[in-house]
Amino acid sequence: MAVMPLFLLVAGSAAVAGVARRTPVPAPLLLVTVGLAAxxxxxxxxxxxxxxxVLPLVLPPLLHTAAxxxxxxxxxxxxxxxxxxxxxxxxxxxxxxxxxxxxxxxxLPLTAALVLGAVVAPPDAVAATAIARKLGLPHRITTILQGxxxxxxxxxxxxxxxLVAAAIGAGATWGDGAEKFAVASLGGIGIGIVLMVPLxxxxxxxxxxxxxxxxxxxxxxFVAYAAAEQLHASGVLAVVVVGLYLGHRxxxxxxxxxxxxxxxxxxxxxxxxxxxxxxxxxxxPVVVRGxxxxxxxxxxxxxxxxxxxxxxxxxxxxFPATYLPRMLSARIRTREPDTNWTAPVIVGWAGMRGVVxxxxxxxxxxxxxxxxxxxxxxxxxxxxxxxVIATLVIQGLTLPPLIRALRLPGRDAQAETLAEAQAQxxxxxxxxxxxxxxxxxxxxxxxxxxxxxxRSVMERRRNSVWERLGAVNExxxxxxxxxxxxxxxxxxxxERRVFVQLRDIRRIDDEMLxxxxxxxxxEEATAYRESAT
Length: 533
Fold this sequence. Notes:
This protein is mainly α. The chain is 77% helix and 0% strand. It is built from 22 helices and no strands. It has helices spanning 3-20, 27-38, 51-69, 72-77, 79-104, 110-120, 126-134, 139-167, 174-205, 210-230, 235-248, 255-282, 284-289, 296-328, 330-335, 342-349, 355-362, 377-406, 413-439, 448-467, 480-504, 510-532. 37% of the residues are buried.
């Protein structure tokens, strides 16, 4: 892809994503819609989705970002439902959708139909988890959706490789396929486990250089993915395992590294996600031109059938996977919270497909080992495209009103704040004890005002969470703590303006200005993060 079209894609998608934040429409849906419309604007260049770019260069950082933000403990507690969705459902959907395509599309070989099933099997939960968090769904549903999206790509990609080998006549048997699947899965997890400890050790040892740590952080997902793929293992699983471990241990790295890393990965994720969803819409001319012998009416009819099968197959899997284990195991009934029918309905309807499906579809080889081309390759591309678009638009737009209509119990904000306050109280008590212990040492002698300042900062941190449980200001709707933070930020703004004025009249130089502004920036970042909790 040339530099100018790439620049237009990134800049345009970022602008649309920015506009989406001011509308009730989720950014992925608006990006796809704008991409569809822009595909036929005169002068817009053709954008061809290259799987050799998306899979090794776009997928690893997106997976790494999601893994860093995921809860290792939450995923471990929900390992059964996550595994049933990310492995069981993907394999189930591969065969159900593939067999349906085999029955519906005349002349389509079963092996080629199963390739289509593997391509459209993995949901991309970026939009679903964003909606779940925005609407305050229970943590467990959000964790399950996020966990599914972390691991299901590995299942789908591995199944695709096995099935495409059979489709092109590479001589793969079902036994070979099962062996390849096991090697790729276990190998990816094993490589991730091998890499995660030394990578974390290196991050901790680079404590004095936040720039070096963040440079390493940017390289980690590509290193993990490339190492696993080089050994014919699952690069997706290697990236996820490393990301989960580093996220779980992130408290051990320097605070400056965490601040920079959080900002850097949010920017990378925003740019890549925006460009990827816009790129989905921009594929329309490419897939329509390739239909060849199939008429538009035929192709759209097949697309409607595939969409219905994809949606129904998820519900057929989700409801038994939710209730059968509870019926068969007393241990599961004891360990896991009760659930009603509304939760599996949300999980079932949140099966939106994304760019991974398109990237896999575009990687389908054009030719067989013998003479001839891959059966109905262009139709497979078209059906993948329509399935992705239909699930994103139809399910994505209806998911928020469905959640509201079902009235799922949201997160208990009062209980969460109370738990936070209790945790902060225990931590503050430990900090007080440590301070008193340190002050006994003559080497730690401080003037009285500075000691009082340490104690007051600690006291304010302890009280701030409790104050959020109190009454709100009748005029502004703010708690006393929120008003305190707002006023603190206004004071910081006033200081910042004075520093700039002093620089402008040359009473201080730019180097000193940057030092003073950085100090204020850290204080403001602290105030912002506290107010966002």
